[in-house]
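Onboarding guide, step 5: your first structure request.
Type a short instruction followed by the sequence, for example:

Predict the 3D structure of this protein.
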Amino acid sequence: MLGLAGISIYNMLYKQFHNTESVYIYIDSRKNFDDLLNQLKEKANLSSDKTFRLFADKMNYKNNMRTGRYELKKGESTIDFIRKLRSGNQSPINITFNNIRTKEDLSGRIATQLMIDSTELLSTLNDSAKVATLGFNSSTIVSMFIPNTYEVYWDTSIDKMFKRMKKEYDGFWNDERKAKAKKIGLTQTEVSTLASIVEEECTYSDEYPVVAGLYLNRIKKNIPLQADPTVKFAVGDFTLKRILFKHLEIDSPYNTYKSSGLPPGPIRIPSIKSIDGTLNAQNNNYLYMCAKEDLSGRHNFATNLSEHNANASRYQRALNERRIF
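The system replies with structure tokens like these:
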């Protein structure tokens, strides 16, 4: 009898879960115990929710539920797992965000990876007073988010997320990058803004320094950038194949056909490669660029208007021949 009792206790402690590998259990801000049980049933084939409830009650866990992402290892005992849950000993998660154009996109991408509400995050990104405490405004705040992979806790708050991104941003902008920004006459946020335009313009990263050099030339000469991607941003439609005269008439500080200099902030979150490409801008004499007529995604560059007009005519002819409107 004692042997059978021992087996029963052992089973309650160590045979409750039947996962063949580590699984992850998520507890959100509702701290719903029934939801926890459902996850254990689905992911770990929990043998008896009554037994789990019994141990949870004995260990006073229901009154001490903590949010987070928790690893349930293969063979982990009921008591050890409840202790892990109760102490908040959660496992970190890797989050990534790249190829992001708008604050709405950024909020949505982060919300799919963390216990963060996308609407609340977007509201914070647009909160002038909040972002000012970090050294940004509502137009430049996206430049604080350097695209990379970051290890964080799933239940990280928006405030902690922002502090972490600011720390990463400060680390990214080391003395070498700061010196390069100073050399080309731009602030850090201006570099990010220019890099965002450069990245939207270029299909191939080897053109980043060339295009950056061209735009810097125009800025120095007080010539409007006339960058089509900024017009797409102003219009709110990045799918435009051709920029028409009606698009150029939009009244927006992001319409670089009407406004000189850089727009108020990035038109996308620039990649590290485009930021570094901009910081290493080529010293050239180009003032104009136009997509190549072979539609390869590369550009023809020109130092004068007549040469540029010839390049543009070839490109427009190629679009017409292919009925791209």
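Each response can be followed by summary notes, for example: Residues 249 and 258 are 8 Å apart (CA to CA).
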